[in-house]
């Protein structure tokens, strides 16, 4: 009887441990989705060895947000070393290891090769029995710095905005006071040829819209003819070495001539 008791007690404890792992990871997911980074970190840290790939991505993201870059890289490392990594994993991991530029470039190269493999596989599928009705095409404006956030001005003529790497560096005085650990992005405008998907006339918008720090992402409301965007705040906290982002809006026909207005709290 004593043997039976200890066997059942041990099995019950193992089951509770498994349930505890599941519940803890779910609470981590819940905290992450609801923007509670501190709780997400606390929950994920308890079950780090049992996290799924998506949970590891979420965990690494909140760690990076809290400026725990080294730990974020440690969490992401098993993903990029596996055969289940996707393009954005390689780019993100490369940003998490700024002190090892050689390794970062290797992972960026992996990302670029993976993009080409995806394109080739898409071409192969179109010739097979189970051909896909869709074709994945890498646009000619893409750089190695993770361009993203395409937003159409008009789907009829192909004009769109997107976020690309910032080309103009801030003045030395500002660079000394504010040193970013990640890539800064500016807003670009381009024309897409809808028949060939060739992008032409791609250009970085001038400083009426772009600041010397982070700009974007953005959204467009065609009913009100208004563009909304995130943009570096005009108020700089020099003592704390911090700069926050504010929300701005500008009329679409004034994008390249009018300085955007900061949105007032309702």
Tell me briefly what this model is.
By secondary structure, the protein is of the alpha+beta class. The chain has seven helices and eight strands; from the N terminus they run H-H-H-H-H-H-E-E-H-E-E-E-E-E-E. Strand 5 and strand 6 form a beta hairpin.
* Order of SSEs: HHHHHHEEHEEEEEE
Which shape, going by the Cα principal axes?
A: globular
Helix fraction?
A: 40-55%
Give the count of structural domains: 3
What's the tally of helices? 7
Strand content: 15-25%
Radius of gyration: 23 Å
Count of strand segments: 8
Largest sheet: 4 strands, antiparallel
Give me the secondary-structure category: alpha+beta
> Which stretches of 5+ consecutive residues score pLDDT under 50?
1-16
| Spatial gap, N to C terminus | 70 Å
Biggest sheet strand line-up? 1-2-3-4
Oligomeric nature of the chains: single chain
What do the pLDDT scores average to? 77
